[in-house]
Write a structure and sequence with these properties.
96 residues
Length: 96
């Protein structure tokens, strides 16, 4: 699902130029984080998602240092870390 947000929210122009232009990468990462803001509100974890997305996509789009598979793996690892506190709070432990 995060990949769907990634591709759905960016324009073809941003997708094409995000590797060449830091501002376009900033816009891309902001658009990527927007659904997290809508679903979970604003907290410091969004900064983690934004910065990691910026770094991972820059390594892939600008420097071609990581593969698409590594790109997606890293993004899902970050999202797992992001969602851990939420899933932890949702676990109900019987007291008796």
């Amino acid at each position: 699902m995060p990949s769907a947000w990634d591709y759905f929210l960016q324009t073809p122009y941003i997708a094409e130029t995000k590797g060449k232009n830091s501002y376009h990468m900033f816009v891309h990462c902001s658009l990527y984080c927007f659904p997290f803001y809508l679903c979970f509100g604003l907290d410091q974890r969004i900064l983690l998602v934004f910065l990691s997305h910026f770094l991972i996509d820059t390594l892939k789009a600008r420097y071609d240092r990581i593969s698409v598979i590594m790109d997606q793996t890293l993004h899902y690892m970050v999202l797992t870390i992001y969602l851990l506190p939420i899933s932890y709070c949702m676990v109900s432990i019987p007291l008796s």
